[in-house]
Design goal:
Layout: H1 8-28, H2 34-46, E1 48-49, H3 51-58, H4 62-74, E2 78-82, E3 90-94, H5 96-120, H6 123-145
Organism: Neomicrococcus aestuarii
Keywords: DNA-binding
Domain HTH marR-type: 1-138
């Protein structure tokens, strides 16, 4: 049966199952949990954030984000700075060490993927993959909004 005639549910399951090995490979090469990596990524993109904002972004409880941010701070990857206008509010920011760690964590999966794409895919398959990137980005950005 051609892939374009797969029922929606079967296509969704097939897509999920195709992504699963990627998740395993990426996560096996990382030293930080996906949640902590999400915190560092959000801080790199937005500069600073409250723990409430971070909890929403990585979809964990306030208690879990509190523990995660304390651990990241202990490791030297984040810092807490007081709000200039509201002394009760504290911002979480990314340190230089945190930016370096984020780069290392992201590069760990990229190296494997780059090699796999180069060695295992034909030129035509690489073109198909390149064309799919905007669609995957759209799915990923919509998933982040959920």
């Amino acid at each position: 049966m051609p892939h374009d005639s797969l029922p929606h549910e079967l296509m969704t399951r097939s897509f999920y199952e195709a992504l699963y090995p990627f998740s395993l490979r990426f996560n096996s090469r990382r030293t930080l949990s996906p949640g902590k990596l999400g915190v560092l990524r959000h801080l790199a993109e937005h500069g600073r954030a409250s723990t409430t904002e971070l909890a929403a972004v990585v979809q964990v409880s306030q208690q879990a984000i509190s523990l995660a941010t304390k651990e990241l701070e202990h490791l030297g990857f984040t810092a807490r700075i007081p709000d200039d206008d509201d002394r009760r509010r504290t911002w979480i920011t990314l340190t230089e060490a945190g930016q370096q760690k984020l780069t290392e964590e992201l590069d760990a999966g990229v190296t494997w993927l780059q090699t796999a794409i180069q060695e295992r895919l034909s030129n035509d398959e690489r073109a198909i993959l390149r064309a799919a990137i905007p669609v995957l980005q759209k799915l990923g950005s919509e998933a982040a909004d959920d």
